[in-house]
Amino acid sequence: MIETDLLIIGAGPTGLFAVFEAGLLKIKCHIIDALPQPGGQLAELYPKKPIFDIPGYPSVGAGELVDNLMGQIKQFQPGFTLAETAETLTKIDDEWFEVVTNKGTVHRAKAVAIAGGLGTFEPRKPVLENLADYEDKGVEYFVKDPEHFRNKRVVIAGGGDSALDWSIFLADVASEVTLVHRRNEFRGALDSVDKVQALRNQGKINLITPAEIVALKGDGKLEAVTIEREGERTDVETDFFVPLFGLTPKLGEIANWGLEIDKNSIVVNNALDYQTNIEGVYAIGDINTYPGKLKLILCGFHEATLMCQSVYQRLNPGKKYVLKYTTVSGVDGFDGSRKEAEKAVVKKID
């Protein structure tokens, strides 16, 4: 039996940052995640991918961001149940919830925050007759380590941010990068589209549009892809084919917990605290939905912050919380003298 104040389901960036915000409020946390390591999609799908919209970082690697978040919460000593999936949620009484994993681990908490990202997910695969024959033999659905493609020929298919970003990144890693998209227009960031066009003009990326991969060829491993463009087919020799068509998200067992669901996302009250229709159960990050929702990491951080304030009130009914800025109190200064902390800040400024 594992008991905690706040049980967080999902160890992605939003879930990890929630531990920090909870720690500032002296709320004890425990995290459940189906993956064998913290970090969620950042660690599992694209640990080397650069992220450009984290405040204060012009660019930060996904894996580096996870490491920084883990370092940030280390002082609060959260517990982890990894490589296990939360299967059931039961309200024991007015105070406690019980969550049991697929391996039978029982967790009890006074509040539950679902920070499961896209939930369980799998890549959207192109419809190709012999695709499965080349999986892990030249067909890769994720770029976990760019060095795997060092000095290799790579064909990427897709028109979103992942396809654009990895084409740009691998242009300086692979010996040859070919980006294939079925339309002339891309769905990704305009800046990324401009960078791809610039690299194409420099001869660092082969851009083929509008076109599609229609066949894979090779004896035991991938050796070439067949590209169809304007009715004509051409074989392009390659070492790797990376179709980046996004992920198919699934809520899994969470969908059976009695939560209000809309289009595979959990409906929350964003006007207050990101609570679900079950009092004491919250949903933050990509897994939730509300009017105007944006699936950005920084939005998840904001949601986690407000959620923790609500959990504090739930755990301490009637107790007034006075917001203290960490620039004044420090992370470990919440039990100390605020006046002494203020003096220290003034002295440093002087």
From TrEMBL:
Gene3D superfamilies: FAD/NAD(P)-binding domain (3.50.50.60). Binds 1 FAD per subunit. It is an enzyme of class 1 (oxidoreductase). The keyword Cell inner membrane does not apply. FAD binds at residues 14, 33, 41, 46, 86, 121, 286, 327. Residues 5-291 form the FAD/NAD(P)-binding domain. GO terms for molecular function: ferredoxin-NADP+ reductase activity; flavin adenine dinucleotide binding; NADP binding. SUPFAM superfamilies: FAD/NAD(P)-binding domain. Homodimer. Belongs to the ferredoxin--NADP reductase type 2 family. This is Ferredoxin--NADP reductase. It comes from Cruoricaptor ignavus.
